[in-house]
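User: Study the shape:
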Amino acid sequence: MGVHYRFRFPFEIRDISVKLLAAPGTAQMRFASKMVYSLEQGGHAVLCTLRRFAFFVVAVSSLSNAVAQEPSLAPANGAEAGQITEIKVGYLRAYAPQLALSVLDVPPRDEGVAGAEVAIGDNNTTGRFLGQKFTLHVTEVKPDADVVPAFDDLVQRGAFYILADLSATQLLSIADLARDKGVLILNVGATDDRLREEECRANVFHTAPTRTMLADGLAQYLIWKQWRRWVLVYGSHEPDKLFADALRRAATRFGGEIVAEKQFTDTGTARRTDSGVVQIQRQIPVFTQGFPEHDVLLVADESEVFGTYVPYRTWVPRPVAGTAGLIPSAWHPASEQWGGTQIQNRFAKASGRRMLSKDMAAWTAGRIIGEAATRTQSADPETLAEFIRDGDFSVAAFKGQKLTFRKWNWQLRQPIFLGDGRSVVSTSPQEGFLHQITDLDTLGIDQPETRCALK
């Protein structure tokens, strides 16, 4: 058997193929090369290059054989060479088909799950050299369902790492059970601040950003632009009100001024019908009429009732930001900075679409597990948790810097992307917003103001 290498040089070489052969049961190798090249284009240089390449191939192959037999790279938990340690990762999600004001905004069926699958593939790229095999086990429940039976089933199947794409209430219903069973939970979906504050848990890590982090990232940019006077319109559902609270907090924190507020009450109108579109074109300008002079109109409409219709329909022409217009998020499908093209291409090849924020949160969570398992050469949840909690732990996630966890509530520090439907406009924290530890701690609730007491 042999290893084949095929390559080209920048000058004229029509064909070079190199084959490295190893006699079975011996360390002797024979290097054979066949080449056709033009001496007029630097044949001596080519010959020297080929010789160096030959020695490199022999050295790498010898090293590979040595590494394959190295006891220190044996599978975790003292497994013998050739034995595979399976690390089962559960993905527990609350799912039901969702409508959106625009058909382009309807969430993909595999949102989040697709990111976890790519992470598992990345983990296995390294894991197979260490005797580790990562597998993903997806379980779905209804958004308002009891998740305890589904959680228990995953644990019984050996999944001691759970990526949770659940509501805050559902996640809290299993958090203490998970602690008692030695299960780590990584929250990839819920942005509720209470999960990191008064309801925080020592065994729950958060890769999804909080509403306050999203609001702070947006507010910093508006202040940087000197757009300080804001009007806030928000929906009548609880998530809308929570994001509105985060925007109010951000205004106070960074020097913005909310000069007026107004609630848009959900009346259940079918706005995607022809008559509904006509009604909206008339209704939104009137709804936004009469506000004091302002620079930006902020929208808090996580429930998708009216927000998408606000841009270009306001009474006074003003930029729109929040859940519509300029939107803060953990990731953007158009991000190509900091090696983003690499993960975008891998993700698109695997799933057939661009990567969304929840996909990135799930991918990051999966990679955190993989990184910890690789570094510790262990599959034990307690060992991995101890490693993740270490102050030196970090994860690379194509966001310009290594990401670390806040020790006071296990929220992952991360930049916030600001974008519209086409491109990334900016990334927060913005220039000039400083912190004594890391500028990422200017986003969200900082340690001096936390209400978290880990338990």
User: Anything to note?
Assistant: The first strand starts at residue 2 and ends at 6. Confidence is low (pLDDT under 50) at residues 1-51, 53-79. The radius of gyration is 27 Å. The chain has three domains: 2-69, 85-209+337-414, 212-329.
